[in-house]
């Protein structure tokens, strides 16, 4: 089947694929703009934007942005959105992923709106006040949830306080890269897998007027996309597959780390955010697992659950520091993120976004799968 377009607020998205937000520095202006140019949704991660343009921010002697105002830099985000829109040539849509857990969440949401974002995707907590920060701006608001119960709470709160409902919702299962919306043990339970969560969330959206459901967290192939759209989804969100593209903003060492990962190298462990974090076993992760504490103090004040470094000290690392190290290409000291299926990418290698979109829309065979059909 040809993938149907997605109506999202006042935009018609030709290809109902969201490239997931990946920070620090994995999905910024180059990746998001190129994805949008192909007719899909390119998402810029608003986390740690101060690393992108160091000349715009105050930094310590190690190059780390100082404080949340520079870690999540308005000037950097504004430049990224502008550059992504130029790259997109007016096609698709440009969104921003803003974690509820980041310090200055409301300010960053306002920054994204003022910079001209078409969409705000928000998770890592419930974005109950997001409409307050956006006001009357013509921006699609898309919360990320892991259950029908969470969606119900968001809809009830938004309708009562702001006379507004989500323009779509991302349902994220526990196979995604990065932070999970589940406890560690829940990530492996059948009832919390994406395919089993989907029916109840779809039913909940229909109670509120058929809000489009964008499924994420383990969606890998054209076959997966077709399956969920036939079941009633409006589209899908995919992140890890976009790492192995030429246009991905990540440094080459990051792409090679994902490409070289074996299935057993992709693990879940504890994060300062308070959620399980899916990463690749690398030298720093191995040291952490052996009991090493690599915390060097809080300089960025990046996320509120960390309590100015208290939780980072307990788990042995600062998430901003280690994701920043990965963005800077430091294999020994960085933390590198992948979804559970990332080990399949070695069969594909690094390709262009255009080629990947061709694969995901069924126009080209999928080298990561042995039996993948192609649209006739």
List descriptors:
TIM Barrel; 2 domains; 14% strand; 3-stranded antiparallel sheet
Please provide a written account of the structure.
The chain has an eight-stranded parallel beta sheet with strand order 3-11-10-8-7-6-5-4. The chain has a three-stranded antiparallel beta sheet with strand order 9-13-12, with no helix packed on it. It has a two-stranded antiparallel ribbon with strand order 1-2. It has about 375 residues and is an alpha/beta fold. It has helices at about 30-35, 70, 75-90, 105-115, 130-135, 150-160, 195-205, 220-230, 240-245, 250-260, 285-290, 310-315, 320-325, 355-360, and strands spanning about 5-10, 10-15, 15-20, 40-45, 95, 120, 140-145, 170, 180, 215, 235-240, 265-270, 275-280. The model has no long low-confidence stretch (mean pLDDT about 90).
